[in-house]
Every structure is written in structure tokens, then in C-alpha cells.
Design a protein that fits this description.
Length: 482
Amino acid sequence: MPINFPGGVYPPNKKFTNKKYISELTPAAKVYIPVVQHVGKPAKICVKEGDYVKIGALLASADGAVSANIFSSVSGKVVGIENRQTSNGEVAHIVIENDFTDQTEFLPRLTNPTREEILKRIADCGIVGMGGAGFPTAAKLDVPKDDKIDTLIINGAECEPYITSDHRIMLEYPEQILKGAKYIATALNVSNIIIGVEDNKDDAIETLNKIINLKNYTDIKVVSLKTKYPQGAEKQLIYSLTKRVVPACELPFKVGVVVNNIHTALSVYYAVWEGQPLYRRVVTVSGGAVKNKGNYWVRLGTAYKDILNECKAVNLHENIKIIQDSIREKQAQIDKLSKSQSKQIKQLKSEIKNLKKELDYIKTAQCVMIVNGGPMMGEAAKSIEEAVTATTSSVLFLTRQEINNISPSQCINCRKCAVVCPMKLMPMFIDLACIAGDWENAKKYGAVDCILCGCCSYICPAKRDLVSSMKKSKRMIAKRGI
């Protein structure tokens, strides 16, 4: 029986890049590194304009337990510290001019590290949750003594459409991921590691199991999960794999579980074994408006404009001309054929029909939206000047056809949003409470427990932006202390 959770939806996966090997995106001439790439307080800047830094040099230090160190992703000179726009408002960025010498400043390897050494190394290297949440990993692993942890879950579900970065990491870095998972397990003092992977990634499951058997890792097992969104959400993943329910407003350690993302496990390996601070990550670049879709190692602080510059926007004029020329050529071939050659004529007409369809598509293949993350939970970028951070699993350059262009209408009380809600909430009532500014009722209907997965907005036939109502309700309830 498929391992599953209640609710959820089945959006088209659009995994155009799942066969694309990870390659290195050319480092940009200038990077813009935000001092907030995590949940918690911004890091404190410890460099100044004119300083020379190497890859891995500390730029800003963690400010308290829930914060994270920030590092340089290139070698070169600090040329400015300026406030720049991000999806979550203005944030201080450290601007570095790349000298392309790629000099590094890494830490020494830890051989047979203790629990305390692993926790310190993870904190020193600024590792945060790389599935999108960005919670500082050292703080996550520092579980209160009264809470007994017996299971570490490594999240390989990657259920958002378009994104394939974790999938490719599992295929290309399986040994490093498993070693990283074992370091995390040592930090937690647990011997039960479960890696959850959706069943549309059989090749990843096979690759991981091959290494597990080869190394005789008896403490790790890979579990195949039903492909459904949001299978990778923390509470849904825990339920699918352990049937434990995380109580409202509580964290997973309350049910004896800690969850880390696949990429986080890989970064822990690099921190402990290679001494590398978090200065780069694998990013899926996709969407109908970009030509060279793929999975790339991208230096943190790389602006979206530099990604598009290398991966190339779809060239509308060039492609339109190529297709029009091809249509004319095939029509000329038809004109030269006699009526007795009906089979060839039929074939050419079919090819012309397909080319015309492609032409219609390309004419609309202009980027109208950039999304940081997936289309369900990601954030629309305010500008192409925004930069990749530790939590940027993908950058999507979307066309008008790929976004919701339908204007919302009145709720028709179909209750589909409640049926698909994986948290068993009633989004239609929270939406009404939000419109009325009735924050007490919004809380009563569970706005605080919403995980912002977007299933409600996706399924809504009236195309209501229910997620925005959830976000606003959560914000206002917190602000007013309700």
C-alpha cells in the first residue's frame, strides 16, 4: 500500500530537468550576499568596504542561537554594503567583486568527530535547512534534554513541480548524503535513519540502496512514498513515515523525530569532512522562458540576472524565424509533390501543423514572473536583481501560460479547499474571516496551523488567492497576540 497522508493534490510535475546532470554555473563578476538567508536574527556584518576575502571567509557572524554565519562565495574585494530588495523586504547585502582566482579559506577536516564537534562545525559553517525553511541546523539539532529523539528523517520527497535539484543530488552524491546523514544522527545520538523518497524517483531509491548495501549501513533505510503534493512538508512526511502526529504549534522533536533535507545532509558532509562553509548550493533553473534549463551549482549571492544571462532567455525573434522558415520549406516540398504521393503530403502537413503549434507557444514564451522556489510555495521575485540564497532550491523563469491569469470570483462553497487541506483546516472560512478582519475567527479556524502549502489555492475553482489570506491572518494574529 502506498505510504501516504490525508489530503493533498496532484499538480503536473513539469520535471523538465530530472535528466540534467548537475554542472557549475559560471561565477558572476559581482555577488550580492544577504545577511539573512535563514529563519531568525540577521547575522552581524564583520567586514568593511575595501577588505579582501576568499571563498569561505566569514562575512557576517550569527547573532544568537537562532541565526547563522554568512560566508563569501567568491574571492575578491568587498566593494559595498547596501540595502537591497528581496522577496521578504529590504535586507543588507555585502557586495563582492570577484577576482576569479578562487582562493579558499576552509576549515580542517574532522576525523571521527564527537557529537559536540559536529554541532560546533555545523554552526561554524552556517548550515541551515536547505529545503526552503532555512532554520539554522545547529539550533534544530540542539534538542532539549527532556525530549527523547529516536528517529532522524532525511527528506528526499521534493514534491514541488519543476524542482529536481534534490533528485539529482541523490543520484550524483549518494555516498556524501549518507555520510552527512550519519553525522547528523551522531549529533542527535540516534541510530534510526529513514530517507523518504517519492515513488517517481525510483532511480534515486535504487542508487541510495546500492550504497547502503555496499557500506552495510544497517541504521539507514530508504522508504518509497506515494507521489503527492505536499509529501515533502515536514508534518506530512513524519505522518507518512511514522504515523506520528505533531501537535498543533509544536515542533517534530515533541514526537521524537528530527527532519533534515537531502541538501542539508550533503552540506553537513562538506562542512565536517571537507571543512567547507555554506557558500554554494544546487539550484534548478527552469520555466518556459529560459533556454538552457538544468541543475547547477550556484554561488550564493548570484543575481537572477546573471543566471538568465548564462542560461539564456528564449530568443523569441530567432526561434520564430527558424520555425517560419521551416514551415515555408515544408510547404515548398508539398508544392513539388504530385497528388499520387499522398502519404508524403500527409506527413508534411502533420509536421507543419505541429510547427504552427510550437510557433504559437514560442510567441508567448516571454518571462513575466521569476519565482524563488517552486510554483506552489515559492516567492515571486520583485526584481531580477535579487540573488540566490541558501534556501533557493530553484529559480523559475515563467511565461504567461505558466502562471494563473484568471481573475478570482466569489467563493462558491464547494469546500474543495477543505477536502485537499493536508492540515484538515477550512480555508474558505479563514478567507472570509481575513476579508472581514476578524482575526479571532481566523485563529479559531486554524490559520496558525496552516503550512502555506498552497493546495487550497491550487484546487479552488473560483481561483481565490487563499494562501495570501492565510499569510495575512497568521501575520495579524501574531502581531495582535491573539
